Amino acid sequence: MSLVELRNVSKIYRLGEEEIRALDDVSLDIDEGEFISIIGPSGSGKSTLMHILGCLDSPTRGTIKLDGVMIHDASARQLATMRNRKIGFVFQFFNLLPKLSVVQNVELPMIYSGVSGRERRERAMASLEAVGMANRAKHRPSQLSGGQQQRAAIARALVNGPKIVFADEPTGNLDSHTGEAILSLFRKLSTEGRTIVLVTHDPEIAAVTPRRIEIRDGKIAEKVDLTLAGLDRPHVVRSPEDKLAS
Amino acid sequence: MNLFTTIFVGLKEVWAHKFRSLLTMLGIILGVASLVGMAAIIKGMENGMRETMVAMGGADKVLLEQQEVPSEQEHLADQARGRTMTDVFALRESAPLIRLISPEMEVRNVTLTRGDKMVSPSECVGVWPAVLDMNLHTLQYGRFFTSLDEENANAVCVIGTAIRDELFGSPERVGREIVPLGELIFINSQPFTIVGMFEHYEGEQEKKQREQARKQPQVQAAGPSRARGWGRGNWAFTRKNLTVYMPLNTAWLRFRAAAGQDGVPDPRLSDIDLKVASLEELETGLQQARNVLMSTRRGIEDFNFRTQENQLDTINQQIRNARMSGGIIAAISLLVGGIGIMNIMLASINERIREIGICKAVGATGLAVFTQVLVESVVIALVGALMGVGVSFGFVKVLGQIAPTANSPVITPIAMMVAVAFSAAVGIIAGLFPAVKAAKLDPIQALRYE
Ligand SMILES: Nc1ncnc2c1ncn2[C@@H]1O[C@H](COP(=O)(O)OP(=O)(O)OP(=O)(O)O)[C@@H](O)[C@H]1O
Ligand SMILES: [Mg+2]
Question: Could you say which ligand is closest to the alpha carbon of residue A41?
């Protein structure tokens, strides 16, 4: 059983007469431990897909199973719990709370899962340690560089031990050098067994991940699975059925 | 997310915008201060009225009042004689439910003199010893009148402390308590011997002030000595301290009989006061008294009973009215405070849409967001309420300074609790709408919000 099973998912926005298909009949499986990039031009529906996968949004049509739970028609409360326990988010603009210190930001998800004060602080520090930010725990986000803020955000995404981490253009707001560092941090997390989905429009970044999913106009255009091929030449899989067959 | 953390975060949010929060709280602060202050003033009034009531003889005292002859008996008006000793004796004989009868014969236009000092008493009346129990007097020095005094119409009197203060000097001025027993004073030029003196009557408030003054006696030594009189203190006590009593017969023989109109002495009493054995028997007792009086007055109903219960009702009514209007004023300012809180909470949510989105993205449920906003609103209201209680203490103090009265305001714990509870309710109601709004925010739109 896959960690994520997406079946015939569509997201349709209606603006007056016009109908925008942000996602159009998308099916997708993600296994535990995979490192995937979703790539596509601007407006192709990458973020929409990520939001639906990440329980931030519900699809108009189709079914989603995440870690054995059907979430496409879950209540707002259930979605919040899924986000809290099973999912970590990393955003392009870091999205740290400016009034809280770095360590308090990392503690935030645990506050909503009811972890007690001391354990909260310990786990937050451990998480910051893992991304190399323990020495900046007491700083405010505004006192950090972009790369440091993104590390803190990653620490926050990891702190509740999520099943899967979603990163929407995590390097989009960083210079190439810092971007590299963040990417290698993701790679390191991947080798440690984390499931990571990276959204980007940069082919160079997508090339880093073993599996790539390309989206165009809300449809999956092609999937490249290096782990299956074991080669540097991409192995093209047309649909989840193909993948299952191989 | 536990409540403690929520409250802590709420307090921090309030603290982060100190000035804004203070301005928001102002409505609540003023509302609570006016509610508590108003309640304190009313409580002071109430205390004063209660004290006055006791000073005037307690709740079970009944006044036999003279009344116009009713219109259907107008042709008998010339036979109405008013209140006389005949009534008193008849009541004593035939109305066993009346436990105490106190006739009073007032001597009018009285001046007391001693050497070059003089004073006008509040009342100078001839009485029976029953007056002590009737008017709740306590004789501290000397004795009251004996039957011999009464029979012989002796020229003796019992005085209140204020009379002593004027004629002999007050303890405050002299520095010691003068007890003028056996001294001679002149009541309208007739020599009287003082045989007794009452205790000094005063309200709780004055007592407290006097004790305070005694504790630090040197502080005001240089200034003018505080005048005693009508300016401060409960008038009922002041009046009671200015009393001069003499035997009833003395008043009759030495003053009334000697100075009647056209040579005919006026036998009418100025007052007849009654007390019934117990308040439960008030109705029947008074009915008994009415029957007796109807016969002594040959069926002319030119009298009326005034019970303190009527008075008590009036007092309670007044207090209720004052409470009501005070409560409405306070409620309005609390309402205004609540609107202020709602306004600021809406603004604050708008400012924090993105933050709320972030919290939701990491797992905050709608309920958690709702609680957070609501708690914040209640925190503002409660902090405001506590400050308001503090302000009300200052307010009452200032009020006491600029307008000193006998009925100085008393802050009651009940008023404080009501005010705080009311503020909490205002905080909840004011926070409800913003909280729902925040809880319903869509996480994606909130995250995208600039
Ligand atoms: N709330 C919305 N209402 C209407 N249309 C929307 C809404 N959100 C997204 N869309 C549309 O859905 C499509 C996909 O948007 P999406 O944000 O997923 O693109 P993206 O691939 O993430 O682009 P980018 O690389 O610029 O971030 C776009 O055409 C967008 O205009
Ligand atoms: Mg996007």
Answer: 1
What is the domain partition of chain A in residue ranges?
4-245
- Confirm or reject: Cβ of A13 under 6 Å from ligand 1: yes
Is it the case that residue B223 has pLDDT exceeding 50?
no
> Pick the residue with more confidence: A222 or B16?
B16
Nearest CA in chain A to B368: A112
Ligand nearest to the CA of A215: 1
Q: Which of B200, B125, B113 minimizes the C-alpha distance to B161?
A: B200
Query: Is the CB of residue A19 below 6 angstroms from any atom belonging to ligand 1?
Result: no
Q: Which CATH code, of 1.10.10.10, 3.40.30.10, 3.30.300.20, 3.40.50.300, is assigned to A4-245?
A: 3.40.50.300
CA-based nearest residue to B200, from B178, B175, B224: B178
Whether pLDDT at B295 is above 50: yes
Percentage of residues of chain B with pLDDT beyond 70: 92
Sign of the Cα torsion B223, B224, B225, B226 reads negative
